[in-house]
Amino acid sequence: MTRARLRTPPAGPSRGLPAARRAALLVFPLGCALAALAIGQDANYDLLNYHYYIAYAFLHARLGIDVYTAQLQSLLNPFLDIPFYVLINHTPPRIEAAVVGALQGLNLVLVYLIGRRVTRSRLLAASAAIAAGVAGGFASELGNSMGDTIVSIPLLAGVLFAVVALGRSEARVAAARGGAPAGATSTSTSPAARPVAGRRPELVWWLVAGAAAGFGAGLKFSGLPIALGVVIAAAAPRARLRERARRLATTTAGLVAGVLVTSGYWSWFLWRNYKDPIAFTQASFGIFHSPYVPQTDLGASRFGPKSLADAVVFPLYWVVHPLRVAEVRLRELSMPIAYALVALLVVAVAARAVARTARAGGRIGASRADVDAGSDADVDRYLVVVFAVSLAVWMEVFDVYRYLVALELLSPLVAFAAARRLVALLPSARPTRARAARALAPGFLAVCVVCASTANPANYWGRAPFGSRYFSLALPGVLANGRVDAVVEVGGQPMGFVFPQLPARVISIGGIGNLLTPDNRALVHRALARVRADRGTVNVAFVDAPVRPGLGVPRGTSRYLARLGARDLVVQVCDVVRAGIGAGYQPVKFCRYGPAGRTG
Question: What pLDDT digit, counting tens, does each position of 499-526 carry?
Fold first, then answer.
Protein backbone atom coordinates (compact mmCIF):
# COMPACT_ATOMS: atom_id res chain seq x y z
CA MET A 1 0.00 0.00 0.00
CA THR A 2 2.87 2.35 0.76
CA ARG A 3 4.35 1.89 -2.70
CA ALA A 4 0.99 2.52 -4.35
CA ARG A 5 0.54 5.67 -2.31
CA LEU A 6 3.91 7.02 -3.45
CA ARG A 7 3.38 6.25 -7.13
CA THR A 8 -0.30 6.90 -7.68
CA PRO A 9 -1.73 10.43 -7.87
CA PRO A 10 -5.34 10.94 -6.86
CA ALA A 11 -7.90 10.29 -9.58
CA GLY A 12 -9.94 13.25 -8.43
CA PRO A 13 -8.79 16.84 -8.12
CA SER A 14 -5.07 17.25 -7.56
CA ARG A 15 -3.90 18.45 -4.18
CA GLY A 16 -1.04 20.24 -5.92
CA LEU A 17 2.57 19.37 -6.50
CA PRO A 18 5.11 20.03 -3.77
CA ALA A 19 7.13 23.20 -4.26
CA ALA A 20 10.31 21.28 -5.12
CA ARG A 21 8.49 19.30 -7.79
CA ARG A 22 6.92 22.44 -9.27
CA ALA A 23 10.37 24.02 -9.42
CA ALA A 24 11.74 20.90 -11.13
CA LEU A 25 9.19 21.36 -13.94
CA LEU A 26 10.95 24.62 -14.82
CA VAL A 27 13.71 22.51 -16.36
CA PHE A 28 11.52 22.11 -19.45
CA PRO A 29 11.06 25.84 -20.23
CA LEU A 30 14.69 26.49 -19.29
CA GLY A 31 15.94 23.70 -21.54
CA CYS A 32 13.85 24.95 -24.45
CA ALA A 33 15.11 28.51 -23.93
CA LEU A 34 18.73 27.33 -24.02
CA ALA A 35 18.04 25.20 -27.10
CA ALA A 36 16.49 28.21 -28.89
CA LEU A 37 19.63 30.24 -28.14
CA ALA A 38 21.86 27.43 -29.43
CA ILE A 39 19.92 27.10 -32.70
CA GLY A 40 20.17 30.78 -33.68
CA GLN A 41 17.96 33.72 -34.55
CA ASP A 42 14.72 32.81 -36.29
CA ALA A 43 14.67 33.87 -39.94
CA ASN A 44 12.05 31.54 -41.38
CA TYR A 45 10.35 32.29 -44.69
CA ASP A 46 6.96 33.00 -43.12
CA LEU A 47 8.44 35.48 -40.64
CA LEU A 48 10.13 37.38 -43.46
CA ASN A 49 7.00 37.16 -45.57
CA TYR A 50 4.08 37.89 -43.23
CA HIS A 51 4.35 37.06 -39.50
CA TYR A 52 6.21 40.28 -38.70
CA TYR A 53 4.29 42.38 -41.20
CA ILE A 54 0.71 41.46 -40.25
CA ALA A 55 1.28 42.41 -36.60
CA TYR A 56 2.74 45.73 -37.78
CA ALA A 57 -0.16 46.27 -40.17
CA PHE A 58 -2.74 45.68 -37.44
CA LEU A 59 -1.05 47.86 -34.83
CA HIS A 60 -0.51 50.70 -37.34
CA ALA A 61 -3.81 50.36 -39.26
CA ARG A 62 -2.06 49.62 -42.56
CA LEU A 63 -4.69 47.32 -44.08
CA GLY A 64 -6.57 50.35 -45.41
CA ILE A 65 -3.36 51.78 -46.88
CA ASP A 66 -1.15 48.94 -48.08
CA VAL A 67 -2.46 46.43 -50.61
CA TYR A 68 -1.78 42.74 -49.82
CA THR A 69 1.85 43.37 -48.84
CA ALA A 70 2.10 39.75 -47.67
CA GLN A 71 -0.22 38.48 -50.42
CA LEU A 72 -3.31 36.68 -49.09
CA GLN A 73 -1.55 36.02 -45.77
CA SER A 74 -2.04 39.74 -45.09
CA LEU A 75 -5.55 38.72 -43.95
CA LEU A 76 -4.42 36.19 -41.32
CA ASN A 77 -5.39 36.76 -37.70
CA PRO A 78 -2.58 39.01 -36.35
CA PHE A 79 -3.17 38.39 -32.64
CA LEU A 80 -0.79 35.41 -32.50
CA ASP A 81 2.01 37.50 -34.04
CA ILE A 82 1.69 40.64 -31.91
CA PRO A 83 3.79 39.25 -28.99
CA PHE A 84 6.53 38.28 -31.45
CA TYR A 85 6.41 41.74 -33.01
CA VAL A 86 6.71 43.44 -29.61
CA LEU A 87 9.62 41.21 -28.56
CA ILE A 88 11.43 41.73 -31.87
CA ASN A 89 11.10 45.50 -31.66
CA HIS A 90 11.75 46.03 -27.96
CA THR A 91 14.19 43.33 -26.82
CA PRO A 92 17.59 42.12 -28.05
CA PRO A 93 17.31 39.10 -30.39
CA ARG A 94 18.78 36.69 -27.83
CA ILE A 95 16.24 37.76 -25.21
CA GLU A 96 13.45 37.31 -27.75
CA ALA A 97 14.66 33.79 -28.60
CA ALA A 98 14.97 32.79 -24.94
CA VAL A 99 11.51 34.12 -24.05
CA VAL A 100 9.89 32.33 -27.00
CA GLY A 101 11.77 29.11 -26.23
CA ALA A 102 10.73 29.21 -22.57
CA LEU A 103 7.11 29.78 -23.55
CA GLN A 104 7.27 26.83 -25.93
CA GLY A 105 8.66 24.75 -23.06
CA LEU A 106 5.30 25.03 -21.31
CA ASN A 107 4.13 22.37 -23.77
CA LEU A 108 6.39 19.86 -22.05
CA VAL A 109 5.11 20.85 -18.63
CA LEU A 110 1.59 20.12 -19.87
CA VAL A 111 2.68 16.78 -21.36
CA TYR A 112 4.16 15.87 -17.98
CA LEU A 113 1.00 16.86 -16.09
CA ILE A 114 -1.18 14.88 -18.51
CA GLY A 115 1.24 11.97 -18.26
CA ARG A 116 1.02 11.92 -14.46
CA ARG A 117 -2.72 11.37 -14.69
CA VAL A 118 -2.48 8.89 -17.57
CA THR A 119 0.46 6.72 -16.47
CA ARG A 120 0.26 7.37 -12.68
CA SER A 121 4.05 7.42 -12.68
CA ARG A 122 6.46 10.35 -12.46
CA LEU A 123 9.11 8.40 -14.36
CA LEU A 124 6.83 7.54 -17.27
CA ALA A 125 5.40 11.07 -17.39
CA ALA A 126 8.89 12.58 -17.47
CA SER A 127 9.91 10.12 -20.19
CA ALA A 128 6.94 11.16 -22.31
CA ALA A 129 7.80 14.85 -21.84
CA ILE A 130 11.44 14.29 -22.81
CA ALA A 131 10.49 12.28 -25.90
CA ALA A 132 8.06 15.04 -26.87
CA GLY A 133 10.69 17.74 -26.29
CA VAL A 134 13.12 16.33 -28.85
CA ALA A 135 10.43 15.35 -31.39
CA GLY A 136 11.26 16.50 -34.90
CA GLY A 137 8.36 18.89 -35.44
CA PHE A 138 8.51 20.53 -32.01
CA ALA A 139 12.31 20.82 -31.83
CA SER A 140 12.52 22.33 -35.31
CA GLU A 141 10.36 25.28 -34.20
CA LEU A 142 12.14 26.17 -30.95
CA GLY A 143 12.53 29.95 -30.89
CA ASN A 144 10.48 30.07 -34.07
CA SER A 145 7.62 32.49 -34.81
CA MET A 146 5.36 30.30 -36.98
CA GLY A 147 3.11 29.77 -33.96
CA ASP A 148 2.42 26.04 -34.13
CA THR A 149 4.27 25.45 -30.85
CA ILE A 150 2.41 28.35 -29.23
CA VAL A 151 -1.07 27.30 -30.35
CA SER A 152 -0.28 23.82 -29.02
CA ILE A 153 -0.17 25.20 -25.45
CA PRO A 154 -3.93 25.89 -25.12
CA LEU A 155 -4.70 22.74 -27.14
CA LEU A 156 -2.75 20.58 -24.68
CA ALA A 157 -4.27 22.53 -21.80
CA GLY A 158 -7.67 21.51 -23.17
CA VAL A 159 -6.63 17.85 -23.04
CA LEU A 160 -5.35 18.27 -19.47
CA PHE A 161 -8.61 19.90 -18.33
CA ALA A 162 -10.60 17.09 -19.95
CA VAL A 163 -8.51 14.46 -18.14
CA VAL A 164 -9.11 16.35 -14.88
CA ALA A 165 -12.84 16.33 -15.65
CA LEU A 166 -12.75 12.57 -16.09
CA GLY A 167 -11.03 12.23 -12.72
CA ARG A 168 -13.72 14.39 -11.16
CA SER A 169 -16.42 12.26 -12.72
CA GLU A 170 -14.92 9.00 -11.49
CA ALA A 171 -14.35 10.39 -8.01
CA ARG A 172 -17.96 11.67 -7.90
CA VAL A 173 -19.34 8.27 -8.85
CA ALA A 174 -17.08 6.55 -6.34
CA ALA A 175 -18.10 8.96 -3.59
CA ALA A 176 -21.77 8.30 -4.34
CA ARG A 177 -21.10 4.55 -4.05
CA GLY A 178 -18.92 4.98 -0.97
CA GLY A 179 -15.86 3.37 -2.57
CA ALA A 180 -12.66 4.21 -4.38
CA PRO A 181 -12.58 4.96 -8.12
CA ALA A 182 -11.86 1.97 -10.28
CA GLY A 183 -8.20 1.79 -11.15
CA ALA A 184 -7.15 4.02 -8.26
CA THR A 185 -5.97 3.39 -4.73
CA SER A 186 -7.82 4.20 -1.55
CA THR A 187 -5.93 7.50 -1.30
CA SER A 188 -8.21 8.79 -4.05
CA THR A 189 -11.10 9.21 -1.66
CA SER A 190 -9.28 10.90 1.16
CA PRO A 191 -11.11 13.97 2.48
CA ALA A 192 -8.59 16.31 0.85
CA ALA A 193 -9.08 14.73 -2.56
CA ARG A 194 -12.83 14.06 -2.50
CA PRO A 195 -14.70 16.41 -4.84
CA VAL A 196 -17.92 18.19 -4.11
CA ALA A 197 -20.82 15.96 -5.02
CA GLY A 198 -22.76 16.83 -8.14
CA ARG A 199 -21.98 17.30 -11.82
CA ARG A 200 -21.35 21.04 -11.86
CA PRO A 201 -17.61 20.98 -10.97
CA GLU A 202 -17.01 18.31 -13.60
CA LEU A 203 -18.91 20.25 -16.29
CA VAL A 204 -16.91 23.36 -15.48
CA TRP A 205 -13.76 21.44 -16.35
CA TRP A 206 -15.32 20.26 -19.64
CA LEU A 207 -16.30 23.84 -20.41
CA VAL A 208 -12.78 25.08 -19.71
CA ALA A 209 -11.32 22.23 -21.81
CA GLY A 210 -13.38 23.28 -24.82
CA ALA A 211 -12.61 26.97 -24.23
CA ALA A 212 -8.85 26.32 -24.11
CA ALA A 213 -8.96 24.31 -27.34
CA GLY A 214 -11.10 26.97 -29.01
CA PHE A 215 -8.74 29.69 -27.81
CA GLY A 216 -5.86 27.96 -29.62
CA ALA A 217 -7.83 27.22 -32.78
CA GLY A 218 -9.01 30.82 -32.95
CA LEU A 219 -5.43 32.07 -32.87
CA LYS A 220 -4.50 29.85 -35.81
CA PHE A 221 -7.17 27.89 -37.66
CA SER A 222 -4.72 25.10 -38.44
CA GLY A 223 -5.28 24.02 -34.81
CA LEU A 224 -8.95 23.35 -35.52
CA PRO A 225 -8.57 19.58 -36.20
CA ILE A 226 -7.07 19.00 -32.76
CA ALA A 227 -9.61 21.31 -31.13
CA LEU A 228 -12.37 19.22 -32.72
CA GLY A 229 -10.69 16.09 -31.38
CA VAL A 230 -10.68 17.56 -27.87
CA VAL A 231 -14.40 18.28 -28.15
CA ILE A 232 -15.67 15.13 -29.88
CA ALA A 233 -13.66 12.88 -27.57
CA ALA A 234 -15.67 14.24 -24.64
CA ALA A 235 -18.38 11.75 -25.62
CA ALA A 236 -15.98 8.79 -25.79
CA PRO A 237 -15.67 7.69 -22.11
CA ARG A 238 -18.30 5.18 -20.98
CA ALA A 239 -21.35 6.89 -19.48
CA ARG A 240 -25.10 7.14 -19.93
CA LEU A 241 -26.16 8.71 -23.21
CA ARG A 242 -27.50 11.78 -21.42
CA GLU A 243 -24.19 12.24 -19.60
CA ARG A 244 -22.22 11.95 -22.84
CA ALA A 245 -24.50 14.47 -24.55
CA ARG A 246 -24.08 16.87 -21.62
CA ARG A 247 -20.29 16.62 -21.82
CA LEU A 248 -20.28 17.08 -25.57
CA ALA A 249 -22.60 20.08 -25.46
CA THR A 250 -20.63 21.74 -22.66
CA THR A 251 -17.28 21.23 -24.39
CA THR A 252 -18.72 22.48 -27.68
CA ALA A 253 -19.99 25.62 -25.98
CA GLY A 254 -16.53 26.18 -24.56
CA LEU A 255 -14.98 25.67 -28.00
CA VAL A 256 -17.24 28.27 -29.59
CA ALA A 257 -16.54 30.74 -26.78
CA GLY A 258 -12.78 30.22 -27.08
CA VAL A 259 -12.79 30.70 -30.85
CA LEU A 260 -14.83 33.88 -30.50
CA VAL A 261 -12.39 35.30 -27.95
CA THR A 262 -9.35 34.99 -30.21
CA SER A 263 -10.83 35.27 -33.70
CA GLY A 264 -14.26 36.86 -33.28
CA TYR A 265 -13.10 40.42 -33.82
CA TRP A 266 -10.87 39.51 -36.76
CA SER A 267 -13.58 37.51 -38.50
CA TRP A 268 -15.96 40.43 -38.06
CA PHE A 269 -13.30 42.75 -39.52
CA LEU A 270 -12.84 40.48 -42.55
CA TRP A 271 -16.59 40.23 -43.06
CA ARG A 272 -17.01 44.00 -42.91
CA ASN A 273 -14.12 44.75 -45.26
CA TYR A 274 -13.74 41.65 -47.45
CA LYS A 275 -17.21 40.03 -47.31
CA ASP A 276 -15.75 36.81 -45.92
CA PRO A 277 -14.96 36.05 -42.25
CA ILE A 278 -12.37 33.42 -43.20
CA ALA A 279 -11.07 35.00 -46.41
CA PHE A 280 -7.49 33.97 -45.67
CA THR A 281 -8.31 30.30 -46.34
CA GLN A 282 -8.69 31.18 -50.05
CA ALA A 283 -11.46 28.60 -50.27
CA SER A 284 -13.88 29.38 -47.44
CA PHE A 285 -15.04 25.75 -47.64
CA GLY A 286 -17.53 26.65 -50.36
CA ILE A 287 -19.57 28.85 -48.03
CA PHE A 288 -18.42 32.39 -48.77
CA HIS A 289 -17.46 33.85 -52.11
CA SER A 290 -15.60 37.06 -51.45
CA PRO A 291 -15.18 39.40 -54.44
CA TYR A 292 -11.66 40.04 -53.12
CA VAL A 293 -10.48 36.43 -52.90
CA PRO A 294 -10.35 34.04 -55.88
CA GLN A 295 -11.69 30.67 -54.79
CA THR A 296 -9.32 27.71 -54.95
CA ASP A 297 -9.58 24.04 -54.07
CA LEU A 298 -8.23 23.13 -50.63
CA GLY A 299 -7.92 19.54 -51.79
CA ALA A 300 -5.24 20.51 -54.30
CA SER A 301 -2.51 20.43 -51.62
CA ARG A 302 0.72 18.66 -52.52
CA PHE A 303 0.71 17.09 -49.07
CA GLY A 304 -1.56 14.48 -47.60
CA PRO A 305 -3.01 11.16 -48.80
CA LYS A 306 -4.22 10.85 -52.37
CA SER A 307 -6.76 8.06 -51.82
CA LEU A 308 -8.51 6.14 -49.07
CA ALA A 309 -5.94 3.35 -49.26
CA ASP A 310 -3.16 5.92 -49.05
CA ALA A 311 -4.82 7.48 -46.00
CA VAL A 312 -4.83 4.14 -44.15
CA VAL A 313 -1.03 3.77 -44.36
CA PHE A 314 -0.20 7.47 -44.57
CA PRO A 315 1.09 8.05 -40.99
CA LEU A 316 3.38 5.03 -41.43
CA TYR A 317 4.54 6.06 -44.88
CA TRP A 318 5.77 9.50 -43.89
CA VAL A 319 8.50 7.89 -41.74
CA VAL A 320 10.40 6.98 -44.90
CA HIS A 321 9.16 9.92 -46.97
CA PRO A 322 8.77 12.91 -44.64
CA LEU A 323 8.38 15.40 -47.50
CA ARG A 324 4.92 13.93 -48.06
CA VAL A 325 3.80 15.86 -44.97
CA ALA A 326 6.41 18.53 -44.31
CA GLU A 327 8.12 21.35 -46.17
CA VAL A 328 11.44 20.24 -44.64
CA ARG A 329 12.90 16.86 -43.81
CA LEU A 330 12.33 15.60 -40.28
CA ARG A 331 12.16 12.25 -38.53
CA GLU A 332 9.79 11.44 -35.69
CA LEU A 333 8.59 7.95 -34.69
CA SER A 334 6.13 8.63 -31.87
CA MET A 335 3.30 9.62 -34.23
CA PRO A 336 3.54 6.48 -36.43
CA ILE A 337 3.91 4.26 -33.35
CA ALA A 338 0.83 5.80 -31.76
CA TYR A 339 -1.07 5.44 -35.05
CA ALA A 340 -0.11 1.78 -35.41
CA LEU A 341 -1.25 0.97 -31.87
CA VAL A 342 -4.50 2.91 -32.29
CA ALA A 343 -5.19 1.11 -35.59
CA LEU A 344 -4.46 -2.26 -33.95
CA LEU A 345 -6.78 -1.34 -31.08
CA VAL A 346 -9.60 -0.48 -33.50
CA VAL A 347 -9.17 -3.83 -35.28
CA ALA A 348 -9.06 -5.72 -31.96
CA VAL A 349 -12.19 -4.01 -30.63
CA ALA A 350 -14.03 -4.66 -33.90
CA ALA A 351 -13.00 -8.33 -33.89
CA ARG A 352 -14.09 -8.69 -30.27
CA ALA A 353 -17.46 -7.12 -31.06
CA VAL A 354 -18.01 -9.49 -34.00
CA ALA A 355 -17.09 -12.52 -31.89
CA ARG A 356 -19.34 -11.38 -29.06
CA THR A 357 -22.24 -10.84 -31.46
CA ALA A 358 -21.75 -14.29 -32.94
CA ARG A 359 -21.82 -15.87 -29.47
CA ALA A 360 -25.01 -13.96 -28.67
CA GLY A 361 -26.78 -15.45 -31.70
CA GLY A 362 -26.71 -12.27 -33.75
CA ARG A 363 -27.77 -9.95 -30.93
CA ILE A 364 -25.44 -6.99 -30.58
CA GLY A 365 -24.57 -6.53 -26.96
CA ALA A 366 -22.10 -7.19 -24.23
CA SER A 367 -22.24 -8.76 -20.84
CA ARG A 368 -21.39 -6.61 -17.86
CA ALA A 369 -18.19 -8.58 -17.37
CA ASP A 370 -17.01 -7.56 -20.83
CA VAL A 371 -17.24 -3.85 -20.10
CA ASP A 372 -13.83 -2.43 -19.19
CA ALA A 373 -14.64 0.32 -16.70
CA GLY A 374 -12.53 2.57 -14.55
CA SER A 375 -10.77 5.91 -14.65
CA ASP A 376 -7.80 4.53 -16.59
CA ALA A 377 -10.10 3.16 -19.29
CA ASP A 378 -11.95 6.47 -19.59
CA VAL A 379 -8.75 8.46 -19.95
CA ASP A 380 -7.38 5.96 -22.46
CA ARG A 381 -10.51 6.15 -24.60
CA TYR A 382 -10.44 9.93 -24.46
CA LEU A 383 -6.83 10.18 -25.67
CA VAL A 384 -7.33 7.58 -28.40
CA VAL A 385 -10.39 9.39 -29.76
CA VAL A 386 -8.63 12.78 -29.61
CA PHE A 387 -5.82 11.28 -31.67
CA ALA A 388 -8.08 9.52 -34.19
CA VAL A 389 -10.44 12.44 -34.79
CA SER A 390 -7.65 15.02 -35.00
CA LEU A 391 -5.64 12.94 -37.45
CA ALA A 392 -8.66 12.20 -39.65
CA VAL A 393 -9.73 15.87 -39.86
CA TRP A 394 -6.15 16.97 -40.43
CA MET A 395 -5.68 14.56 -43.36
CA GLU A 396 -8.89 15.81 -44.93
CA VAL A 397 -8.31 19.56 -44.52
CA PHE A 398 -4.80 20.76 -43.67
CA ASP A 399 -2.34 17.84 -44.12
CA VAL A 400 0.82 19.82 -43.23
CA TYR A 401 2.86 18.11 -40.50
CA ARG A 402 3.75 21.16 -38.43
CA TYR A 403 0.04 21.78 -37.84
CA LEU A 404 0.09 18.50 -35.87
CA VAL A 405 2.70 19.60 -33.33
CA ALA A 406 0.21 19.36 -30.44
CA LEU A 407 -0.67 15.80 -31.48
CA GLU A 408 3.01 14.96 -31.92
CA LEU A 409 3.64 16.10 -28.33
CA LEU A 410 0.72 13.99 -27.10
CA SER A 411 1.50 10.88 -29.17
CA PRO A 412 3.77 9.08 -26.64
CA LEU A 413 0.91 9.16 -24.14
CA VAL A 414 -1.57 8.11 -26.84
CA ALA A 415 0.68 5.12 -27.55
CA PHE A 416 0.64 4.23 -23.84
CA ALA A 417 -3.14 4.55 -23.65
CA ALA A 418 -3.70 2.41 -26.74
CA ALA A 419 -1.28 -0.23 -25.48
CA ARG A 420 -3.03 -0.33 -22.10
CA ARG A 421 -6.40 -0.86 -23.80
CA LEU A 422 -4.91 -3.67 -25.90
CA VAL A 423 -3.68 -5.34 -22.72
CA ALA A 424 -7.14 -4.95 -21.17
CA LEU A 425 -8.67 -6.78 -24.14
CA LEU A 426 -6.65 -9.93 -23.40
CA PRO A 427 -8.47 -12.66 -21.45
CA SER A 428 -8.00 -11.91 -17.75
CA ALA A 429 -7.68 -15.58 -16.80
CA ARG A 430 -4.59 -16.17 -18.96
CA PRO A 431 -1.02 -15.41 -17.81
CA THR A 432 -0.41 -13.57 -21.08
CA ARG A 433 -2.38 -10.60 -19.80
CA ALA A 434 -0.40 -10.43 -16.56
CA ARG A 435 2.90 -10.58 -18.43
CA ALA A 436 1.72 -7.90 -20.87
CA ALA A 437 0.63 -5.66 -18.01
CA ARG A 438 4.04 -6.02 -16.33
CA ALA A 439 5.78 -5.22 -19.64
CA LEU A 440 3.70 -2.07 -20.26
CA ALA A 441 5.87 0.34 -18.26
CA PRO A 442 9.31 -0.90 -19.43
CA GLY A 443 7.98 -1.17 -22.97
CA PHE A 444 6.82 2.44 -22.86
CA LEU A 445 10.21 3.55 -21.54
CA ALA A 446 11.87 1.70 -24.42
CA VAL A 447 9.57 3.42 -26.94
CA CYS A 448 10.39 6.84 -25.45
CA VAL A 449 14.12 6.09 -25.65
CA VAL A 450 13.84 4.98 -29.28
CA CYS A 451 11.76 8.02 -30.24
CA ALA A 452 14.10 10.43 -28.45
CA SER A 453 17.27 8.88 -29.90
CA THR A 454 16.00 8.79 -33.49
CA ALA A 455 14.15 12.12 -33.65
CA ASN A 456 15.82 14.56 -36.00
CA PRO A 457 14.46 17.95 -37.09
CA ALA A 458 17.20 18.12 -39.80
CA ASN A 459 16.16 21.68 -40.54
CA TYR A 460 15.22 24.63 -38.36
CA TRP A 461 13.16 26.59 -40.88
CA GLY A 462 15.88 29.15 -41.58
CA ARG A 463 18.14 30.71 -38.97
CA ALA A 464 20.58 33.60 -38.90
CA PRO A 465 23.48 34.47 -36.56
CA PHE A 466 22.30 36.65 -33.69
CA GLY A 467 22.88 40.35 -34.19
CA SER A 468 22.47 43.46 -32.04
CA ARG A 469 19.16 44.16 -33.81
CA TYR A 470 16.63 41.75 -35.21
CA PHE A 471 15.97 43.69 -38.43
CA SER A 472 17.62 46.79 -39.89
CA LEU A 473 17.32 48.76 -43.12
CA ALA A 474 18.76 52.01 -44.45
CA LEU A 475 16.34 54.30 -46.31
CA PRO A 476 16.81 53.80 -50.08
CA GLY A 477 17.73 56.97 -51.94
CA VAL A 478 14.83 56.61 -54.37
CA LEU A 479 12.40 56.98 -51.44
CA ALA A 480 14.12 59.93 -49.76
CA ASN A 481 11.86 62.54 -51.34
CA GLY A 482 9.40 63.10 -48.49
CA ARG A 483 6.39 62.32 -50.69
CA VAL A 484 3.85 59.50 -50.78
CA ASP A 485 5.55 56.77 -52.80
CA ALA A 486 4.37 53.34 -53.89
CA VAL A 487 6.62 50.29 -53.67
CA VAL A 488 5.51 47.21 -55.60
CA GLU A 489 6.97 43.83 -54.71
CA VAL A 490 8.24 41.72 -57.59
CA GLY A 491 10.40 38.63 -57.84
CA GLY A 492 8.47 36.34 -55.48
CA GLN A 493 10.87 36.44 -52.51
CA PRO A 494 9.63 37.16 -48.94
CA MET A 495 9.78 40.90 -48.28
CA GLY A 496 7.06 41.64 -45.74
CA PHE A 497 9.67 42.33 -43.02
CA VAL A 498 11.16 45.19 -45.08
CA PHE A 499 8.14 47.50 -45.21
CA PRO A 500 7.62 48.13 -41.46
CA GLN A 501 11.08 49.73 -41.55
CA LEU A 502 10.23 52.23 -44.31
CA PRO A 503 8.58 55.62 -43.65
CA ALA A 504 4.85 55.46 -42.93
CA ARG A 505 4.14 57.52 -46.06
CA VAL A 506 5.32 54.65 -48.28
CA ILE A 507 2.48 52.50 -49.63
CA SER A 508 3.38 48.86 -50.27
CA ILE A 509 1.68 46.72 -52.89
CA GLY A 510 2.34 42.99 -52.73
CA GLY A 511 2.87 40.56 -55.54
CA ILE A 512 -0.83 40.05 -56.21
CA GLY A 513 -0.90 38.86 -59.79
CA ASN A 514 -3.13 35.94 -58.76
CA LEU A 515 -5.41 38.19 -56.70
CA LEU A 516 -6.30 40.78 -59.32
CA THR A 517 -10.08 40.59 -59.05
CA PRO A 518 -11.97 43.76 -60.03
CA ASP A 519 -12.33 44.75 -56.35
CA ASN A 520 -8.63 44.26 -55.63
CA ARG A 521 -7.73 46.19 -58.78
CA ALA A 522 -9.79 49.05 -57.39
CA LEU A 523 -7.73 48.95 -54.18
CA VAL A 524 -4.52 49.26 -56.20
CA HIS A 525 -5.93 52.13 -58.27
CA ARG A 526 -6.90 53.96 -55.08
CA ALA A 527 -3.34 53.55 -53.72
CA LEU A 528 -1.79 54.81 -56.96
CA ALA A 529 -4.18 57.77 -56.97
CA ARG A 530 -2.82 58.83 -53.58
CA VAL A 531 0.70 58.66 -54.98
CA ARG A 532 -0.20 60.78 -58.00
CA ALA A 533 -2.01 63.32 -55.82
CA ASP A 534 1.17 63.87 -53.80
CA ARG A 535 3.42 63.73 -56.89
CA GLY A 536 5.17 60.71 -55.50
CA THR A 537 6.93 57.94 -57.38
CA VAL A 538 6.19 54.33 -58.32
CA ASN A 539 8.97 51.92 -57.37
CA VAL A 540 9.58 48.19 -57.39
CA ALA A 541 11.49 46.22 -54.76
CA PHE A 542 12.97 42.77 -55.01
CA VAL A 543 15.67 40.60 -53.48
CA ASP A 544 18.81 41.11 -55.57
CA ALA A 545 21.16 38.26 -54.80
CA PRO A 546 23.83 38.30 -55.99
CA VAL A 547 23.86 42.10 -56.05
CA ARG A 548 23.64 43.37 -59.62
CA PRO A 549 24.65 47.00 -60.25
CA GLY A 550 22.75 49.06 -62.77
CA LEU A 551 19.11 48.98 -63.79
CA GLY A 552 18.55 45.22 -63.96
CA VAL A 553 15.01 44.26 -62.85
CA PRO A 554 13.10 40.97 -63.07
CA ARG A 555 11.75 40.21 -66.51
CA GLY A 556 8.17 41.31 -67.09
CA THR A 557 8.18 44.01 -64.39
CA SER A 558 6.92 46.76 -66.72
CA ARG A 559 4.09 44.55 -67.95
CA TYR A 560 3.16 43.73 -64.36
CA LEU A 561 3.04 47.44 -63.43
CA ALA A 562 0.81 48.02 -66.43
CA ARG A 563 -1.58 45.30 -65.17
CA LEU A 564 -1.75 47.17 -61.85
CA GLY A 565 -2.59 50.44 -63.63
CA ALA A 566 0.88 52.09 -63.73
CA ARG A 567 1.28 52.17 -67.52
CA ASP A 568 3.96 53.58 -69.84
CA LEU A 569 6.64 53.63 -67.15
CA VAL A 570 10.27 52.58 -67.50
CA VAL A 571 12.99 52.00 -64.90
CA GLN A 572 15.01 55.18 -64.21
CA VAL A 573 17.31 54.64 -61.21
CA CYS A 574 17.98 51.87 -58.68
CA ASP A 575 19.42 51.67 -55.16
CA VAL A 576 20.60 48.50 -53.44
CA VAL A 577 20.36 48.41 -49.63
CA ARG A 578 21.11 45.73 -47.08
CA ALA A 579 18.07 44.48 -45.21
CA GLY A 580 19.70 43.23 -42.03
CA ILE A 581 18.51 39.95 -40.49
CA GLY A 582 20.46 39.48 -37.29
CA ALA A 583 24.17 39.47 -38.14
CA GLY A 584 23.37 38.61 -41.75
CA TYR A 585 21.60 40.54 -44.46
CA GLN A 586 19.54 40.25 -47.58
CA PRO A 587 20.29 42.66 -50.46
CA VAL A 588 17.14 44.42 -51.64
CA LYS A 589 17.03 46.58 -54.76
CA PHE A 590 14.61 49.50 -55.02
CA CYS A 591 14.04 50.83 -58.55
CA ARG A 592 12.12 53.99 -59.43
CA TYR A 593 9.89 53.92 -62.52
CA GLY A 594 8.78 56.96 -64.47
CA PRO A 595 7.84 58.20 -67.93
CA ALA A 596 10.26 57.33 -70.71
CA GLY A 597 12.87 60.03 -71.39
CA ARG A 598 12.85 61.37 -67.82
CA THR A 599 15.56 60.18 -65.37
CA GLY A 600 17.08 61.19 -62.05
Answer: 999 999 999 999 888 888 899 999 999 9
